Amino acid sequence: MNTLEQLVYCSRSRLAREDEAAAMADIVHVAAYLNARNGISGALTLQDGMFVQVLEGSPSALDILMLHLHFDERHEDIEVLCRDTIERRDFPAWGMAAPSRLQSEALGRLIAARSPDLCAWRAAMTELLVEAA
Ligand SMILES: Cc1cc2nc3c(=O)[nH]c(=O)nc-3n(C[C@H](O)[C@H](O)[C@H](O)COP(=O)(O)O)c2cc1C
Questions:
Q1: What's the confidence (pLDDT) of residue 131?
Q2: What is the 110 CA–ligand 1 centroid distance (Å)?
Q3: Which Pfam families does the record cross-reference, listed alphabetically (predicted)?
Q4: For residue 1, what pLDDT is reported?
Q5: How far is residue 91's CA from residue 84's CA, in Å, rounded to a whole number?
Q6: Closest Cα partner for 62 from 5, 119, 126, 121?
Q7: Which of 6, 37, 40, 110 would you label with 64, given CA atoms 20 to 30 Å apart?
Q8: To test ligand 1's pocket by mutation, which of 27, 56, 125 has the most ligand atoms within 8 angstroms of CB?
Q9: Long-range contacts: 111-114, Cβ < 8 Å, 24+?
Q10: Phi and psi of 41, rounded to 5°?
């Protein structure tokens, strides 16, 4: 069976503010390529020094990516906040979407609360993408 899962994590950026834009561009560039190969899609944002990433793909592909992420020195304190089986992807068209220049109050509240509510994260990230379009 082709199980599909979605997970949301947040992590603390270790980037200097002035390096954030270039680093985000680099991450999205690499992720778009690797994620397409690994059947992963999702969305990534950086708000108030915190990365939030929604990832969707097979359970094993997500596990492997999370291992890589743990060794990436551009961020630290990775907290997986929710992970669940999904019927279909929310971000099918994206190797990795990054509405990074937008700030969202809803997202800020979810980050502060470390919310375990997958639906709320999905909605907040989708909203950001719609606003960025
Ligand atoms: C916040 C953040 C999000 C990332 N998202 C992805 C991603 O979605 N897919 C991916 O392949 N790499 C992503 N990366 C990069 C990986 O950590 C890693 O550099 C990449 O998978 C290449 O693996 P390697 O450095 O072990 O060769 C991300 C890095 C950071 C800091």
A1: 78
A2: 23
A3: BLUF
A4: 65
A5: 15
A6: 5
A7: 110
A8: 27
A9: 111/10, 111/47, 111/48, 111/50, 111/52, 114/10, 114/79, 114/81
A10: -135, 170
Q: According to the 3-state scheme, what is the secondary structure of the chain?
A: CCCCEEEEEEEEECCCHHHHHHHHHHHHHHHHHHHHHHCCEEEEEEECCEEEEEEEECHHHHHHHHHHHHCCCCEEEEEEEEEEECCCCCCCCCCCECCCCCCCHHHHHHHHHCCCCHHHHHHHHHHHHHHHC
What per-residue confidence (pLDDT) applies to 55?
Answer: 96
Structural domain spans, the chain = 5-132
**pLDDT score at 128:** 86
* CB-ligand 1 contact for 31 (6 Å cutoff): yes
Which CATH topology does 5-132 take?
A: Alpha-Beta Plaits (3.30.70)
Q: Name the token pair of 74.
A: 């551009």
Residue 132: predicted pLDDT: 76
